[in-house]
Amino acid sequence: YILEECQNLNIPVILGVSEGAAKYMGGFNTITGMVKGLLKDLNITIPVCIHIDHGSSFEVCKKAIDAGFTSVMIDASRYELKENIKITKEVVDYAHERGVSVEAEVGHIGGTEDNHTSQETNATLEDCLTLYNSTKIDSIAPALGSVHGFYKGEPNLDFATMKIINDNLPIPLVLHGGTGIPNEKIEKAIKNGISKININTDLQ
């Protein structure tokens, strides 16, 4: 349905799958095979990106890339920044040699993703700049008040820091935890630099 609707609208689409969901779907090779089959059978001509969300390690991202994923997110945000940079740089070096884009996370986005629960710790401009300059990632997901899963109360996004980060980084910003954020806050986030919004729980 998503591919057909995007084809009708003539807009590119990013098909994202989490590391945990990939296991339930049979693995990375199965996913890329299924998507390639759909593109052919449905006569899809728009650009389609296959993206892994929250890859937990270099090894996981490598498997996805080798299976044909065109974009990966390495999430090493649970580590200190120095270790986050080390792991992310390893993924970037492997991915960029193969024409694959890399997203990374800084700070801690709250909630539960793939059975991993974390408390929120908002990103800073300094950490975002350090991560980007040290790794040359293609996009960044700074933790700025969004959470994975359902919100308890009203989402409290830090739009001021979002704008500052966007004004100082030459790469797109990603907003995780799109489910449950009211439309007016989604629109405000886009105005403050968000280029990609992840929606998972709503679709499930």
How are the SSEs ordered, and which strands pair?
Blueprint: H1 2-9, E1 13-18, H2 19-24, H3 28-41, E2 48-55, H4 58-67, E3 71-74, H5 81-96, E4 101-106, E5 110-113, E6 116-118, H6 125-135, E7 139-142, E8 147-148, H7 159-168, E9 173-175, H8 183-191, E10 194-197
Parallel strand pairs: 1-2, 2-3, 3-4, 4-7, 5-8, 9-10
Antiparallel strand pairs: 5-6
Helix pairs in contact: 4-5, 5-6
Overall form? globular
Main β sheet profile: 5 strands, parallel
| Nearest-integer average pLDDT | 90
N- and C-termini, Cα separation? 14 Å
Q: In what order do the strands lie side by side in the largest sheet?
A: 1-2-3-4-7
Oligomer classification: single chain
Q: Detail the poorly predicted runs.
A: none
Structure description:
It is built from 8 helices and 10 strands. By secondary structure, the chain is an alpha/beta fold. A 5-stranded parallel sheet has the order 1-2-3-4-7. It has a 3-stranded mixed sheet with strand order 6-5-8, with no helix packed on it. A two-stranded parallel sheet has the order 9-10. Helix 8 links the parallel strand 9 (173-175) and strand 10 (194-197). The longest helix has 16 residues, at 81-96. The chain is globular and about 45 Å long.
